[in-house]
Automatic annotation (TrEMBL):
The modification 4-aspartylphosphate is found at D61. The lineage of its organism: Bacteria, Bacillati, Actinomycetota, Actinomycetes, Kitasatosporales. InterPro entries: CheY-like_superfamily, NreC/VraR/RcsB-like_REC, Sig_transdc_resp-reg_C-effctor, Sig_transdc_resp-reg_receiver, Tscrpt_reg_LuxR_C, WalR-like. One of its GO terms (biological process) is phosphorelay signal transduction system. SMART domains: HTH_LUXR, REC. This is Response regulator transcription factor. It comes from Streptomyces genisteinicus. PANTHER family: TRANSCRIPTIONAL REGULATORY PROTEIN NARL-RELATED (PTHR43214:SF24), TWO-COMPONENT RESPONSE REGULATOR (PTHR43214). One of its GO terms (molecular function) is DNA binding. SUPFAM superfamilies: C-terminal effector domain of the bipartite response regulators (SSF46894), CheY-like (SSF52172).
Length: 221
């Protein structure tokens, strides 16, 4: 008996430039698990379409007429809390990035590297995971350090002390059982902390956790 393949994620694509929509659609429709089923030329049209179409994910340009992508994201988060949202943008901007997350988006993808990042971001969103474009982590860390040097108040730490302990041990190559034995907690608790770390930091796997641990000085390269 053959098992039926899962339904591809149904995507609403909103951008006020038809050429951009065409290019993005080619990227997404080229994947077996993703399909664009609706297109909008502005944020208001995107909201209207999302209300009447059966879509799983909205990919919204940040700068659109009538309603911006951020405004549309806020409205869609209110109207359809089950809908996943990604912001597509030309702007590598810390403020836009945080605004996108506050508006309910699970990811922020730069148009300049959409051919590299967008498919991965869509799949992360469908798994209810966050996607942070690779350059963002470096940028955020650099600005954090700049604020510290200038004596400005710093944001609360991203991860707890326990999560930091586990991050270090994961990056050093220890298994969940070994970490559990060292910290006198269960392997299941270690796995839960590890999943929280991936989500909080917008990372995908052990390799990215290791790179992050090196960047922030928890382990030596």
């Amino acid at each position: 008996m053959t098992t039926q393949a899962p339904r591809p994620a149904r995507i609403l694509l909103a951008d006020d430039h038809a050429l951009v929509r065409r290019g993005v659609r080619l990227i997404l429709d080229g994947e077996p698990d993703l399909t664009v089923v609706a297109e909008a030329g502005d944020g208001a049209e995107a909201v209207a379409l999302a209300k009447r179409e059966d879509v799983d994910l909205a990919v919204l340009d940040i700068a659109m007429p009538r309603l911006t992508g951020l405004q549309a994201a806020r409205e869609l988060s209110r109207l359809r809390p089950d809908l996943r949202i990604l912001i597509l943008t030309m702007y590598d901007n810390e403020q836009y990035f945080f605004e996108a997350l506050k508006a309910g988006a699970s990811g922020y993808v730069l148009k300049s590297v959409a051919d590299r990042d967008l498919v991965e971001a869509c799949r992360a969103a469908m798994r209810d995971e966050s996607f942070i474009y690779p350059g963002a982590i470096t940028t955020l860390i650099r600005r954090y350090l700049d604020r510290a040097r200038e004596g400005e108040s710093l944001p609360e730490r991203a991860i707890t002390e326990r999560e930091e302990e586990i991050l270090k041990l994961v990056a050093e190559g220890h298994t969940s059982k070994e970490i559990g034995d060292m910290l006198v907690i269960s392997a299941k608790t270690v796995e839960r902390h590890r999943a929280n770390l991936l989500q909080k930091l917008g990372l995908r796997d052990r390799l990215e956790l290791t790179r992050y641990a090196i960047r922030v000085g928890l382990i030596e390269p």
